[in-house]
Amino acid sequence: MNSSTNKPEAPVILIVDDDRTMRSLLKIAMEEEGYRVTEAKNGLECLESYNSAPPNLILLDALMPDMDGFACCKQLSSLQDNSYIPILMITALDDQASIERAFEVGATDYITKPIFWSVLSQRVKHLLSSTQNFRDLNYLKSRLAKQEQWQQFRYALIRQCQEDFHLQPLLNDCISQLRTLVNAERVGIHHSNGKLMAESISSGYPSVKTISWQKITLFTVYQGRYEKGESMIIDFSQETELSDETVAPFQQLMVKTLTIIPLLIKGEFWGILWIHHCQNSYPWEPWEVEYLERLRELLVVPSVIIDAANVT
Hints:
- Helices cover 49% and strands 19% of the residues.
- The longest helix is centred in the middle third of the chain and has 47 residues, at 117-163.
- The chain has 2 domains: 12-135, Rossmann fold; 164-311, Beta-Lactamase.
- Residues 1-5 have low confidence and may be disordered.
- The chain is of the alpha/beta class.
């Protein structure tokens, strides 16, 4: 969650051309513009380079041995995911059929040889800019859609708490919906007395029931923070302050990112909501954490009532 003030890295341009001299000229031209450059001498090497480290833009020669630019472009288009990487095809072919073929196989734009370097520079800048705008728009759409899901989830929980007296099924359902909402593999609530109030698990993943609640919640490590209401997000793919013994249960449970939200009642520590992302580390957005912390005030209500009912 720490913000970084580091300058963003320069875009990576993958230059694909069987002509070493042309690759060198293109490399010099792109590096003078401030871009980082990787190279491939044919279509096969291009695909290998793309799979190992996708670039921000590909300059692709049309005529090459082994696999020409048209065949390579077609395969690249089939490989690309939602990240969208523009392909600028460079060709000595300026007939209409070749140009149409370039676009048919997935080229974003084309430029003919001999290259006018100022034109190439502007094309590359335009493609990188438009691609970033495209990604930003998709991100905004995705964020708005997810925020709407959070709002609907919160309103539904409020309504159910007001109307439904079957609180244990309600709590179980809420935990399950939360797990789906944040794409987690395991979500649960522990009372401060160690009782597991609710748990939702994706198919194929083990329960935490066989592991003590102090280990699952890291209570002995972060008790002071929890009592102050401080949430914790721990990415196990990064170095942590935790001992190997402390991390071992989470390795057993295949946890990549652990998120812990203390549940407080009138400022007093009551329990913990924990979230396990097991497939990949989860990059929480600041607004998601804010929504999650708002949600805890609602989740604690049915938990407390259920606990009180069980005591009586």
